[in-house]
Specification:
This protein is mostly helical and 171 residues long. The chain has a domain at 9-127. The protein has helices spanning 12-21, 39-55, 73-82, 91-101, 130-135, 139-161, 167-170; strands at residues 25-30, 69-70, 105-110, 118-119, 122-123. Helix 2 runs parallel beside helix 4 (91-101). The longest helix has 23 residues, at 139-161.
Length: 171
């Protein structure tokens, strides 16, 4: 569960029970947004979900960004040890995609909850201390960085998926 207070802790036992019942599955929460959710968050989520669905051939990831999940530890550790990705904000979608590639079954559990309070360009379910608020990144700069990162990741994956051309094919 994300540590930002957006998800209902009361649902943790339900998620853990689902995980015990399905040890080869990843349990995904599905967020519920109200009208206060920023449009950039909703549109970015649609883009990320579309890319995750494409990469997994619609295996059923559901929401690739929701931070309310249960992962089987051994497969997660294995993919993290084999990948240079999954260390920052790319963790949630990369884990979802790579675990699906490993054959784990995605299971959706709706109503994970997302609570938004606009404050200084960021959305949180609780108020941060003043020193953290001072460290907040401007939303427009962050959005530009995310768009650039998506383009770089897409280009890298596309270029790696193409076999190298030999000299005859380049002509």
């Amino acid at each position: 569960m994300d540590a930002d207070g957006q998800h209902p802790a009361a649902r943790i036992p339900e998620f853990m029970a689902m995980s015990r019942a399905h040890p080869r599955a990843v349990i995904f929460g599905l967020p519920v947004f109200d009208a206060s959710a920023p449009a950039i968050r909703l549109h970015g989520r649609k883009l990320s979900n579309g890319l995750a669905n494409l990469e997994t051939l619609w295996a059923g990831v559901g929401d690739s960004l929701c931070g309310f999940r249960v992962y089987p530890v051994a497969p997660l550790r294995d993919i993290m040890e084999r990948s240079r990705w999954m260390r920052h904000f790319d963790f949630d979608p990369e884990a979802a995609v790579r675990l699906c590639w490993r054959g784990l079954t995605p299971i959706q559990s709706g109503g994970a909850g997302e609570v938004f309070q606009r404050r200084g360009g960021r959305c949180f379910a609780f108020q941060l201390p003043a020193r953290q608020r001072a460290a907040d990144v401007d939303e427009s700069a962050a959005a530009a960085g995310i768009r650039g990162a998506v383009a770089v990741v897409a280009w890298t994956r596309i270029s790696k998926s193409q076999p190298p051309m030999n000299a005859d094919e380049r002509r």
